[in-house]
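Lab notebook, bench 4. We co-purified these components, and the gel suggests they stay together. Before we commit to crystallization screens, I want a quick structural picture of the whole thing.
Request: model the full complex, all chains together.
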Amino acid sequence: MHRLIKILRRFEGGVGVLAFIFIALGLYGGLIASPPDYYQGEVVRIMYIHVPFAKGALLAYTTLFIGSVFYLWKRDPVVDNFCHAAAGIGVFMTAVALLTGSIWAKPTWNTWWTWDPRLVSFAILLLILIGYLMLRTLVEDKQKEAVYGAVLAIIGFVDLPIVYFSVEWWRSLHQPMSISTRGVSIAPGMLTPLLLMSIGISFLFTYMVMIRTQMLYLRHLLGAKRGGLISEVDLS
Amino acid sequence: MPFFNVIKWIVWKDILCEMRNRENIASIFFFALNVILIFSFSFAMDRDVTQAIIPGLIWVSFGFASMLGLGKSFLSETYNDCLSYLQMAPVPKGAIYLGKLLGNLLVMVVVELFLVPLFIIFFNLNILDKLLPFLLILIFATLGICAVGTLFSALTVQTRAREVLFPLLLLPLEAPVFISAIEATAGAFRGDPIALYQHWIELLMIFDLVFIIVSYWMFEFILDA
Amino acid sequence: MMTLRGMKLTHLYRYHKVLSEVSLELGPGECFALFGPNGAGKTTLIKILSTLLQPTHGSIEIMGKNSREHRMEARRFLFLIGHGTFHYDDLTVLENLEFAMALRGITPSYSALMGVLDRVGIGPFALQKSRYLSTGMQKRLALAKALLAKPNLLLLDEPYVSLDEKGMKMMNDCIREFLSKGTSVLMSSHDRAKASEVSNRAGILQNKGLREVPLGELTNALF
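Here is the predicted assembly.
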């Protein structure tokens, strides 16, 4: 069995358990034990979902970048499966972050959307990740699919900070500073569950990527076995 | 120098093919023309409104045009397996990228320069004295679109849904170019002193530099996948 | 120095093995004819030898240059006439030839270009757009490119396809000319008769492996 797959199988259980524990503690702390916000009331509790998932999305994006660079260097097919998995989970996390962000914005700022640099960057990140998955689906040559995806991931990673800054400048010209996503002052009782949830979601991301990488690996193995009745499968 | 020779020959080949088979440049031009016409119907000739949105309209139509034109820039290489010959050529692959980039830039700038008078006519613009800064913005922004667009054309041209995939991949990444181009154009058309909007032009230049370098580097991986 | 050394070439398409430890050496002036059933991997092997594809394991040396470490130098020595013609439909025959040579750093004179076009029999079509050439004429143009490129290693993927009798004779004459100048030639073909006229070595690609066979025993080996 492939070296990396062996490592994933050994640790997946532990990571899963850690994710469960941290998320359980974080949810309890966030939804039940912590105080409501002075200004926002109970609505602030959605922060315990929104912020960790946003961090998870950025983790996915960074993982995809590092994995892509590593793939272009070493061309290990399991690393490619890892990148593909990270992008897929990234779409999930980014979508949840955007959705919860929007739901949080409506009662607090009275708008579903605003041209805040972080929101726009996340929306573009979602589009880049979806584009990545679509590119990989539509490229016909399976060998090229991995390289093309890696190139797209690298270009996207370089671009996102530039997107952030350009929207920041634009916003400073056109919108008064009354609305700010940095507006939530964190009371001490909120910090702990937020931290717990952030760590928990990061573990959840890791766990989901480990599982999905193995799924993709097995799918390719199956395709290989099916593809040639007399083919040998190389598992080095 | 062999490096610059390669760039020269690729530009020569692309321009020659483009001139002989004018379907690409014609389709870009007429598509953008259509967009301009539709815009001019949709917005009542309220002069203040027009002045406010004209920079956006210009860059939207240029953006649509580039989606059409750039996506096809590697199409000619897919016929007869020409891409494999480029791959096997004992030349630095980055030179091929730069040649393609230059060819695309020339085509796009030519189309845009034909469209600008149409904008002036249809929307009654009073910008003849502001054309010089606008030209500067036009070139840097178009370079930014072409830099990533040329690379993505190579990525998407062999896929099944290239017409859909190319704009889907390119547009989100070009957001800084469009924001900067629209803001700078708005400043130029208002007659602001250049100091007020020069940081947008600088952002365009940084974008161009960063992405020409990154795409130059990544192109080798695409061609030798 | 051996023109071509392919060492233990193994190629996996994803995890599916297509070639298994294929080794091959070609010296100057040698012509190797590659036979094998459809789907055996002949085109894959030629793609690997022409550096279009990187083998999963194994390595190739062309004129001593490793194709992974010195890819550009290795490519300078080889030329491929494959299934695709590499012509641009909107360029004329002459322009196609000029462009193809420019990408190899060669700028032949007009007379050299016309000379080689006459040699392959498409001189009268020099100013025609290659879009209007028949398949056979396009193959001749591909051969013209090879003649000007003067490679040390010439790879031919089914060179006789779409050529008429005169064309096939011309192809073999050109191959002999290449061989006499020290070029090594490797061709894959289904045409045993034509290939045997010019080859001095032969092999069969079957079951992911390459088996070299003396020319005399070729008929028995193939059936």
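The domain at 1-77+152-223 of chain C is CATH 3.40.50.300 (Rossmann fold). Worth comparing against the SEC data before the next meeting. The first helix of chain C runs from residue 42 to 49.
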